[in-house]
Amino acid sequence: MTQPADLKLATELAGMHAPSGQLTRRVGATLWPRPARVWIDGDRLCSDPGPGGVVTVDDTDRLLERFLRLADSDEQEIVTFAAQLGVLGICAHGLPSTHAALAVTFPDREGCNPIGWPSPYEPVLYWRSLARQAKAILRWAGLLHRGLPVDDEIRLTAARLVNETIPDFGGQILIRMEDADLLVVHLEDAEPTSEQDRVQLGWLVDQWLRIGDVRLAFSFAGSKGTLRFEPGGLFGSVATHVALAVARSAGIAFCASCTQAFPPRRSTQKYCSRCGDRARMRDAQRARRARRRSG
Questions:
Q1: In 3-state terms, the chain is what percent helix, strand and coil (to 5)?
Q2: Which pTM was predicted?
Q3: Which tens digit of pLDDT belongs to each residue from 40-73?
Q4: Which pairs with CB-CB distance under 8 Å and at least 24 residues apart come from 178-181?
Q5: DSSP element (H, E) containing 79
Q6: Residue 14 carries which DSSP code?
Q7: Within 10 A of 104 (CB to CB), how many other CB atoms are there?
């Protein structure tokens, strides 16, 4: 499945594809819940939260391209996608419920559950809307990377998710709340400069990452700690790939030996090129010795 032809051309011209030719990057470990069942009921996407297993990195090949296709898809295509890769988890605020993820760590803070929890559902229109927003963000970035002007409609479409106030730029760009979850960009007198456009787009992408609860996760097992990217779920993973595409990054992972960040060539790559085979052989020998001792 490919992304829409017009967007594919725009992002290719802007140099936003990874060396693999995809918009989707390699970001190391991926893990979040997969629903046991997904179905359509009227204008709702309903799901049985479990146990349905987990989404793994092998499931996420071309994830961003596949998500972008949902902007103009039918309900069955959305069901197929959600059954494999999970749901958005839209809460009563009209946002993915991961926007309130701090409540998991700090119980005194009010958290969010998906609408209808423990029998969650979400409006189908949110899937198409978020896919359109992702496409608009990528188009916005592609124009900026090529030094071309940005159409107001692109800004409007890209800004609809974020339920906060975008900083204005000297009175030129203002954001006001129209509904509980709708932002509208108003240009007063002059078109924003390219630098102002970059700042605004950067802020939007950062909000996607925050709403998706994308963070560094740390575990301390054995003799050393391990760092990894951990999205809060499907939306967090989409936000990660959008951000990497906008940044024109090759992808990112953390070496299991030196713990330094590196651009992985494969989704399952554990070691950076500097550590490579030597670290792999060393860790394999340690694992064999450990098995002998335990056996």
A1: 40, 20, 40
A2: 0.77
A3: 999 899 999 878 778 876 667 889 999 999 999 9
A4: 180/93, 180/94, 181/93, 181/94, 181/95
A5: helix 75-85
A6: T
A7: 12
